[in-house]
Amino acid sequence: MKRLLKSLTVLLIYPVCAADIEQIAEVTHPQLDEMSGIVASTYEDIYWVHNDSGDRARIFAIKVDGSVVLPRLVTTLFPNRSSDAWEGYSIDNAWHQDWEDIAIADGALFIADVGNNNNSRRDLGVYVVSEPNPNYVHKTRAAKFLPIRYPDQLQYPAKQWHFDCEAVFTFEGKLYFLTKHRQPGKPMAWEPGTKLYRLDTRHTDQQNVLTLVDQHSGITLATGADVSPDSDRLAILTYARLWVFDRPLHEDKWLQSSVRVLDLDRNLVRQNEAVAWETNESLLITNENRAIFRVSLDALTPPATY
């Protein structure tokens, strides 16, 4: 979402070298003007992305060089049409209120309509979409919508504004949510901390009450998350820092395990919104300003406990 960041809490500061993170591309496609989520496709060298609130129900496929993938049907039927006219893969049976992140598991995309700036929404949920072949399909439909509810939100808006979410990921076939906290009644004033929830049911005709799994007082403004291809690490992106947690020894309490961090130069990354693993040793970060950055795992501090 387009916003002016008026306050930001950073608990630990580390120096950033230019070599720690580099911009490798820029997405110039005119209809991808506010990227909010990214996840690696099962199709090689392709990533699924979407715009933030206010867009239509659609996703785009991009490559790490910033180029947008066009289905062959489109290029065959309209050989002289500019690629800038491509409007993305439309998703029928879906509505885009505030899509904040996207995840993938077992051949399905999970598109999280969970933006909740004022902590007052009662219609939060996740669209489940069978992953389309980006080279051949030009549209698809949502197979399901899974309504969700936080177990500890009892009022709308909540007494504590701890029920916005911009970061989701999958682990062992389950979908997880990381919250973003605000001061009550002040959407632009932040509070430190995040909670980790898990989706254990997949009802379509009633709300799925999430399970509170873990929490961390030092992670402020989580905007994206992703588990590495080997499932050994969890990356959590915030406006000012990249956190990478090692796989927990017990269950799925990711936020209690050892972690390495990289503080980000806000002048460089600006409003970074999404993160995806490129390999087990490197990550991609995207921002709402269309930039794509690469970070090597070696650039982060050694594993420690924060």
Give a verbal description of the structure.
- The structure is a single chain.
- The chain is mainly beta.
- It has a single domain, classed as Neuraminidase (6 Propeller), CATH 2.120.10.
- It is built from two helices and 23 strands.
- Strands 2-3-4-5-9 form a five-stranded mixed sheet, with no helix packed on it. It has a five-stranded mixed sheet with strand order 6-7-8-10-15, with no helix packed on it.
- It starts with 20 loop residues before the first strand and ends in a 10-residue tail after the last strand.
Explain briefly what this protein structure is:
By secondary structure, the protein is mostly beta strands.
Number of domains: 1
CATH-defined topology: Neuraminidase
Indicate the multimeric state: single chain
Structural class: mainly beta
| Number of continuous helical runs | 2
Mean pLDDT: 91
Largest sheet: 5 strands, mixed
Shape: globular
CATH architecture: 6 Propeller
Total number of strands = 23
| CA(first)-CA(last) distance | 29 Å
**Spans of 5+ residues with little confidence (pLDDT < 50)?**
1-18
CA gyration radius, whole angstroms: 18 Å
Biggest sheet strand order reads 2-3-4-5-9
Per CATH, the class reads Mainly Beta
Percent range of helical residues? under 10%
Order of helices and strands: EEEEHEEEEEEEEEEEEEEEEHEEE
Content of β-strand = 35-45%
